[in-house]
Design a protein that fits this description.
With 316 residues, this protein is α/β, with parallel strands linked by helices. The protein has a single domain, classed as 3-Layer(aba) Sandwich (Rossmann fold). It is 28% helix and 24% strand. The chain has 9 helices and 12 strands. Strands 6-7-8-3-9-10-12-11 form an 8-stranded mixed β-sheet, with helices on both faces. The protein has a 4-stranded antiparallel β-sheet with strand order 2-1-4-5. α4 crosses α5.
Length: 316
């Protein structure tokens, strides 16, 4: 049984201009012990998808249809109170630029302890002990427990956010662009930490990024999103080495090789489509170098070939 099964999920934002189709009919699964990368350009729907998973979508946004089955239970219809208990305890999330989410007037220890006391039936003393262990888990000195956020660098603050997110032993961790905005050395250190954490506490992770190179070592599978849909999904190695969808190919060639091979970086022509007025047929056709007549008329369906899912008319 999959830990998480997102089935035909559709999320729209209802604006004066019309419905913004942020996520459209998306299905994806995450097994126990698995790490899934979600990649795509800004506005492709990846953050909205995990917002829906955390039930953070608020008006004018709405989950229009679909199921989010977590541990065999659809969490779309459950009450806000039930969802509040689930968040942090069973599903935890580290947000984009999370270091800004730390409370500047509370010590980092207090912030970890608050999270533990919110969800766990433990004494304050036990919570403080666990908070110190959490700091060690993320590679920080346990004696810094009484330090304030401003005493830490950006990468260290991100470690604190991971310590808070994992403080209650969640069963699923969502990382939304966790290394964006950090320098490459700090990025690398955080990626090593995430890989270590995965091994130590066997934590399933959904890792959101616009840069495939940062998840090649952290994720088992990758789903590529474009215009609110998954257009390709495969094992990370397969997708990185043999991307089938033209968008995935361009996305990969627009970042430097993780192996350090010299190659010419290509930019993806054009811009992502307006999600209120999507192009007919394949949403990528205005930017695709291989677009054919059929691409402008018929939307390609996701096809599965040896576990590799791809939606493109070039694939027969
Ligand atoms: Fe390009 Fe057509 Fe494939 Fe879309 S369906 S990615 S336009 S070749």
């Amino acid at each position: 049984m999959a830990l998480l099964s997102i089935q035909d999920l559709t999320v729209h934002y209802f604006t004066r201009k019309g419905a913004v189709r942020a996520v459209e009919d998306v299905s994806v699964e995450l097994e126990q012990d698995q790490t899934l990368g979600l990649i795509g350009e800004s506005g492709c729907g990846k953050s909205t998808m995990v917002s829906a998973l955390m039930r953070f979508v608020t008006p004018p946004g709405r989950i229009v249809s679909g199921k989010i089955v977590f541990k065999d239970r659809d969490i779309v219809p459950i009450s806000d109170e039930e969802m509040r208990k689930l968040r942090g305890k069973e599903i935890a999330m580290v947000f984009q630029a999370a270091q800004n989410a730390l409370n500047p007037v509370l010590t980092i220890g207090k912030q970890i302890v608050e999270e533990i006391l919110e969800h766990e039936n433990v004494t304050k003393e036990e919570a403080w002990d666990r908070a110190k262990n959490q700091l060690e888990l993320v590679g920080l000195d346990r004696n810094r427990i009484k330090s304030y956020p401003h005493e830490f660098s950006g990468g260290m603050k991100q470690r604190v956010m991971i310590a808070i997110a994992t403080a209650c032993d969640p069963e699923l961790l969502i990382l939304d662009e966790p290394v964006t905005g950090l320098d490459v050395i700090v990025q690398r250190q955080l990626l090593v930490l995430i890989t270590d954490l995965r091994a130590k506490i066997r934590l399933p992770i959904i890792f959101i990024t616009h840069d495939l190179s940062v998840i090649t070592e952290t994720c088992d599978n990758v789903a590529v999103m474009y215009a609110g849909k998954i257009i390709e999904e495969a094992s990370t190695i397969e997708l990185y080495q043999e991307p089938m969808h033209p968008y995935s190919q361009l996305l990969i060639s627009s970042y430097p090789s993780i192996k350090g091979e010299k190659r010419t970086l290509k930019s993806i022509p054009g811009a992502p489509p307006d999600l209120v007025e999507l192009p007919t047929g394949c949403s990528f056709h205005p930017r695709c170098p291989y677009a054919m007549d059929i691409c402008r008329k018929e939307e390609p369906m996701l096809q599965i070939m040896d576990g590799h899912r791809v939606a493109c008319h070039l694939i027969k």
